[in-house]
Protein 1
Amino acid sequence: MPVIERVIKPKTHKGKKAILKREPKIIEDTKQTIFVKGLKTTPILQSCLKDLHTLKKPDGQILQRRNEVHPFEDPTPIEGFGRKMNAALFMFISNSKKRPNNLVMGRLFEHTMMDMVEFGVENYVSLEKFKLDKIASGIKPMLVFQGELFESNHEYGRIRNLLTDMFQRETVAQIRLQGLEHVLSFTAQDNTILLRSYKVMLKKSGTRIPRVELVEIGPRMDLKVRRTKLAADDLFKQACKKPKELKVKKKKNITEDGLGKTLGRIHVGAQKLNSIQTRKMKGLKKSLSEKKMEKKRKSLETEENESKKLRITDSNDD
């Protein structure tokens, strides 16, 4: 017997707004992140989760209660949290004898688990240890990925895609120079990803272009790759699919040069210069003798053409 799902209509205006907010959109809102704690954690992990939440503010929420969750064995609880809070990204911390200082980063697609990566946190230095001016919350960071593994290894390529999805913010058309003040650097080496956070300092250089200096502001941690669960190629392709409204239609015969100028190409048919009507002037008007000569020349040409045709027919008859 088929199961009929009951559609519950909202009874209040606030409930209607909440349902409309969760509906699919052509341009989606910034992805939200949930921060989940396991049953057993350590002070280092809790401080690490707090610092990562600071980097994600205001697009993240920490769940205060501890939860008996094992994402690689059963992702159902994480999917439930994501559905309840309308979040597509998650970070999960846990600690055990087999996997100490464990950090799992992952993402959901249509409220089901898409892919996740398990890291071991090593050489952690908290945000509070760096006694420097911090950046404001909500600043769009510049993401830098260094290391040959990100290019040559398929697994690390997907990890780079996950980290980009995790730490990027809303897409903007323009940004001012003073807004580029935060750099997140990820360096892949020896099965480890080094996470560093820098503040961009613009100093005087004597020219219009300022001198750029990077000052580390934390947090700092080495993420040792332990386990991965990546999405299948067809699911990944489906998740990356763009709606038709956002696809830019290619315009024919229009190109752009290196300086950003738009160039157009026009195709013109063959021009018959002899038949072009020009301005009639008395000085260019043909005389009576010229007209007679032209008429005579045309008659001679027709006679020659007729004689050629007669020769061809005679030869064919022979």
Note: The first strand starts at residue 33 and ends at 37.
Protein 2
Amino acid sequence: MKTKIKIKKKEGTRTLILHSEKGQSINQVDLKKLHDQSLPGFIEPIIQSAMGKKLKLSYSITGTHSLEWILKHGVRKETFIDLIDQLNQVLKLVENQNLDIRSLLLDRKTVMISQNSGQLNLIYIPIQYYDCGCDVRRFYESLAYNTVFDSQEETVYVTDYLQTLNSSVTFAKFLMEEYVARHRQNRTDQDRLICPHCGNQVKEGEIFCSFCNADLRESVSNENRAVEVPISQKATPFITEAITTGATTVLTSSCQTTVLQENPASEKAWLEQIRGKIHIAITKFPFVIGKEKNQTDYTVLGNTNVSRKHIQLSIKDERIQIQDLNSTNHTYVNGKCIQPGCLVPLTDQDRILLGNEEFIFHEKGTEL
């Protein structure tokens, strides 16, 4: 059955609307599961009906991009693996909740991704005997053939993806799960996060530990503080560890962190990272910020919405300028999205968003 879909925009909101055929009725069991359990990965529908007429189902998609839009904007390996992982989790949830896979609307235009969290949001149509014509295998296959992959990365993982998908005559979810696990294992230990409370390994970007439910944001902030503090302090005895980052040696003891610098550079400006209230000294240009530790001057930890190399700060005409480095989730200055590659001058107290990671820009001389 071909589903008629319309996206309605009104006063900053977006709603996906579809209509049933006459005489069809709601599957109350499936609707109760969507409503009562707030299943992750699904958008709960609002249903309107009138006697003898078609059912109208509305799904709020405000604050999301379509999967098709995401796939056309330079996808990197980590993003692609995360998308496949999330799809696998949704299919697993469909099985566990005894939902009907035929009612799952698998289409690149109607699978939505949250702009803030990167969470997949799928449309499930709780109508009895409804058939969206869902072909899971074909959908997974379309992701490889309709994605613009980052040209700076090797795409061996894409070849492996297609080979894994085609290694079985029918779609096998466990093969896709093995594919994700295989490529997750290839990530370096530096990209893995360990819960400081229970030792459980958690995915980058998670806020709470899935095992002990501990808040991970405090530990991420402390990690940033330990390595990124730009202000020299007096040395203390009983040193237990030394970490070298460029010209900065961080010496840690049981009671204090010491930062020693060879020829300390003068601070030209600074950023305040709102999460953790972290002071980031800008002492050189260009100055790159992102989540890839080996390619940035400041590394944002614990946020998958930030790209590996997200922005670059440079100086031109005696003004500090910001440039988006073709990031996945974009860069915003005072709420306005800036175009990739364009230089935008900054002024004191400008608010900067890297995806959903917030900073405040401070010109030299201003204080916290």
Note: The longest strand covers residues 13-19.
